[in-house]
Design a protein that fits this description.
Helix content: 40-55%
Radius of gyration: 20 Å
Structural class: alpha+beta
Number of helices: 14
Number of strands: 11
Distance between the termini: 34 Å
Strand content: 15-25%
Largest sheet: 7 strands, mixed
Length: 317
């Protein structure tokens, strides 16, 4: 293991990172709300404790109103891009406390300074979304296919100074900004509520913006030191099972008991219910599972069994 950072250094890095991002929010009232509502948790703190490079900083909001307004703010940023000839039809869905970013049809946009455009698609697919995902999986994306007019293409391809903390990817559950920031809108609430959706104990350290406090939980530190996956239960055990691959590739280990705990939770799910399956696949290789869900929707529910599911999975993967 590389030499990890001290808690004081980690707190300082996160505090500066979040403050710099918040400064880019143009809406003054929203900027003030966000400054008192950010929770940073997950893999970034683990990476810093282990002396590894941070892939991204996962940000959550502590209340529904701030989370909703922030989602609407960044969707508005993409709507502004449409005026330059870029088609990104977006909306924010809010029902019964569930905040969701919807892309009703295929859309692609380019992030300033990048060589290739980014793709946008709805994580809860309809027929258009499934067709689009199939297209972007099988065909390379070309700049000339993205923009609707020559002027927009020129704007996208000309050399510009790198813009900081600009939205580059929107999915149903999260907003990805440049400079390693990801804002999760799928969940919000106090840290304990956020971690109720987490699966492995090593990811439960967190930092809070309203008091600039870094909390390093002892059980999390023990798991990190041993590089051992300890499953604490999750609302999304299938996602957890898939995530195990990533950790094993990074040299972590897991005992059979932890896998059994995941299997027991999965056994309680009715995966033949499309709503249950769709919810369980939140955040799991969406570009591929979107096709799986679409094909299942087109199938008579009475004919969906394990054999059919296996056949479809083999075809897609």
């Amino acid at each position: 293991m590389n030499s990890g950072m001290r808690a004081k250094t980690i707190k300082s890095i996160i505090s500066r990172k979040v403050a710099k991002w918040i400064e880019t929010i143009e809406d003054k009232d929203l900027r003030e709300k966000v400054s008192q509502a950010v929770i940073v948790t997950g893999g970034c703190i683990v990476s810093m404790l282990m002396g590894e490079e941070v892939n991204d900083f996962d940000l959550y909001l502590r209340d529904h109103d701030t989370c909703l307004k922030l989602a609407e703010y960044y969707v508005g940023k993409f709507e502004a891009k449409k005026k330059k000839g870029i088609s990104v039809p977006l909306s924010v869905f809010d029902e019964d406390g569930r905040i969701k970013i919807i892309v009703k049809s295929s859309g692609i946009a380019s992030h300033e300074g990048s060589e290739l455009p980014y793709q946008y698609f709805e994580g809860s697919p309809d027929e258009q979304g499934a067709d689009y995902v199939q297209e972007i999986i099988t065909d390379p994306i070309k700049v000339e296919d993205v923009y609707q007019d020559t002027e927009a293409k020129a704007l996208a391809t000309e050399t510009k100074p790198k813009a900081e903390y600009k939205p580059v990817l929107l999915t149903t559950n999260a907003i990805t900004l440049s400079d390693k920031i990801q804002i999760v809108v799928r969940f919000y609430g106090e840290p304990d509520k956020i971690h109720g959706n987490y699966d492995f104990v090593h990811c439960t350290c967190y930092w809070t913006s309203w008091n600039n406090e870094l909390v390093l939980r002892p059980l999390a530190l023990e798991a990190i030191l041993a590089k051992e996956l300890q499953y604490v239960g999750s609302k999304y055990p299938i996602c957890s099972m898939v995530r195990v691959r990533k950790f094993l590739q990074r040299g972590w280990k897991i005992n059979a008991g932890q896998i059994l705990k995941m299997a027991m939770q999965i056994s309680e799910l009715n995966l033949k219910d499309l709503k249950v399956l769709e919810d369980q696949l939140t955040g799991v290789d969406t570009a591929y599972f979107v096709q799986l869900l679409d094909r299942l929707k087109a199938k008579d529910p009475e004919k969906v069994d394990a054999a059919y599911l296996v056949e479809i999975v083999d075809r897609i993967f």
